[in-house]
Amino acid sequence: MKTLIILAHPDLEQSIANKNILKHLQEDVKNIEIRHLDKLYPDFNVNVIAEQNALLSADIVIFQYPFYWYSSPATLKQWLDKVLTFGFAFGVGGDKLKGKHFLLSVTLGGPTKSYTPLGYNRFTLDEFIKPIQQTVYMTEMIYHGFIHSNRNAYVEGMLNSKSEIKVNAKNHANQISYFIETLRKGNTHKIKPFIKKWFEHFDQLDENGFFLQYLSSDVKMQIPDHNEFIGHDGFNKWYTEAKNNFIGLTAHHLSNIDITETSNNYFEITFNVRYVTQTKDNSIDIFLKENWQLVWNTTSDRPLITEYLVTKIK
User: Which of 5, 24, 42, 233 is deepest in the core (most CB within 10 A)?
Assistant: First the structure.
């Protein structure tokens, strides 16, 4: 995954916080492009095609800037006005940024307590950045919130210290690096714990609602000794009948879990299950093969099962 950092800072050479954040990111993060708007466009004459191409080539977009008068430096506002055009970032055909991951990264001069209702800035950072947040939503990028650090203003002998700001910058950069690496890992590592959680709740015969939240509205399900059924109504009918037929709890013993990402956040999953339970009619101890189709919703950070097929192993 490629990371694009859109940097707005009119005097980066004199910066301590932003300069060091970028230094650490360049050292620690692979496949990263930094576009310093003030250096590229000192006359504010933004090359729209170049900037749009940079966005198209990126998977992760990060805005990096110091917090100037409760907003961003002027070059970022110019960039937003020129680059995020109708038909590209919004409107008819304007879905070119849809699904890209967005993170805001800002440095602040004041202490944390100043960004509270009783502080001298009156409002929280989250309130100040609502326009950026809505811009991201409008472009259909995935908004991942913001990373920030405080007490980055430096006045020799009066306000903070260079060493303190450099420590802040390192911690700030580490948070960005962790965010990027987490995205690059994808969601495969989350699926096995989800499968185990699913069957833990099944073994406790949990309420229908727990399972429905993870099933698509048109989920296709096939269970041994039952007809194929579709959707939430089909699941509700089958699960309610099954619970009424059980005596006590059930037990699912999982093995050979295989997870394949067929395309971005779409997965095919297969595994074996030893299923042990007692019904009103008989005892059951059988081996099953399960095949799932699952999509990981990156907005809600939750899985959604679209196909759930179970067969007996002879």
Answer: 5
